[in-house]
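User: Second chain of the day. Same drill as before.
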Amino acid sequence: MRGNGKRVGMEIRMFAVLKTGGKQYKVGSGDILRVEKLAAVSGETVQFNEILMVGDRVGEPFVEGAAVQAQVIDQIKDRKVIHFVRRRRKHGSKRTKGHRQRLTLLRVTDILETGAAETGVKEAVGAGSVPRDLDISAIPETGAISADLEVPPMEDTVPVPAAAGPGDSHDAETVSGSKDQDGADGTDRSDQASQQATN
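Assistant: Same format as last time:
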């Protein structure tokens, strides 16, 4: 039997190995799998672009142009894991915590050996990489955040030293100024500082 697949009856079923959430999954068309939580809603189709192996092709590390498409069935939680800590010879030193990992239930719909960039299907993005206050429906088909989203700008500040000693030559006014060191009236602050030093 040549090729990379499972024999189903008389036909060979192609499979791929994809990477998501720090784990690798061997999948075939129609398989149902549980992966780390993705930023997607039920019924949505997502595309995994980090494919380690598909058909006879092995990636270095990923196969160029290959993808796996899957439909989101539901957002679920894994079974509860109890974390119990008890310290010996310490009376009453016990701690019990429970944890249920959040997962996404998927059904693999298609395995693409080439042409992943032209499909227009939204890239599978982990829920941990999307800010909590960002609406996941605002993520475009390519998986990147669109330019029309309002993202607050970062402040243009220069760090100020915590405490200046008596021998420090830093001027507090020049340190707290902007990076281009232009004053409000358009004059150069470095010139103002040098004039004050000569006076």
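The mean pLDDT is 77.

User: Great, on to the next one.
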